[in-house]
């Protein structure tokens, strides 16, 4: 966040004394940074609300302050980026391309945080609270009607299609992004990943991992004395079958 803000301030200083031609040069350098700020805010807000929801679920406040501080820093960088876009003297169609990316990122964020914003009353991680709650209600409805895996498979496919044009884009802060991804993935239990390092499906995890709420053998049953099995004699079985005939 600090590097983003410092870089944006440097661009802002250049624009104050620049001609329209220089604005175009600045835009060439600035566009990938703005795109990174807008798109990566999806991860910031989704992971932020996830950590906050975990704190609410466990009745503590350990991760939430960090999540909110990071989200606030990203929001500051986003506001600065929008301010720079408004001060640039470049063709509108070039600005609109990045602005569409911003609005698309906001909409996907509201969709992804919807169910958590609804369940834990966390509207401040969404861009538009009502839109996020509508998404959350729809997701809860889909979870009841179908498996959550099928729902999120469609969501994942939609995200890939929406941001497919950014696959070859150069990132301003590759080392930091890799470190963030490693930290997030490192917070998951090792059994969440399959043999090639991808996330297992929720159904597979539930099958492989016994639930603490419903253990295979209850603690009460483990304390009960073992009852001897009844011995069945073949003579009795033969007599019984003979009577049934």
Q: Mean pLDDT, rounded to whole units?
A: 80
- Extract low-pLDDT stretches: 214-238, 240-245
N-to-C SSE string, H for helix and E for strand: HHHHHHHHHH
Class derived from helix and strand content: mainly alpha
- Please state the CA-atom Rg, rounded to the nearest Å: 27 Å
| Rough outline | elongated
Helix content: over 70%
Largest sheet: none
Distance between the termini: 85 Å
What's the β-strand tally? Answer: 0
- Beta-strand content bin: under 5%
Total number of helical segments?
10
Please give a structural write-up.
- The structure is a single chain.
- With 245 residues, the protein is mostly helical.
- The protein has a domain of 171 residues.
- Helices cover 71% and strands 0% of the residues.
- It has 10 helices and no strands.
- Helix 1 packs antiparallel against helix 2, helix 2 runs antiparallel to helix 3 and helix 2 runs parallel beside helix 4.
- It starts with a helix and ends with a helix.
Structure summarized in a few sentences:
By secondary structure, this protein is mainly alpha-helical. Helix content is 71%, strand content 0%. α1 packs parallel to α3, α2 runs antiparallel to α3 and α4 (92-120) crosses α5.
Salient structural properties:
single chain, mainly alpha, 10 helices, elongated
Topology:
Blueprint: H1 2-16, H2 20-58, H3 64-87, H4 92-120, H5 129-145, H6 148-162, H7 174-186, H8 202-208, H9 219-223, H10 234-244
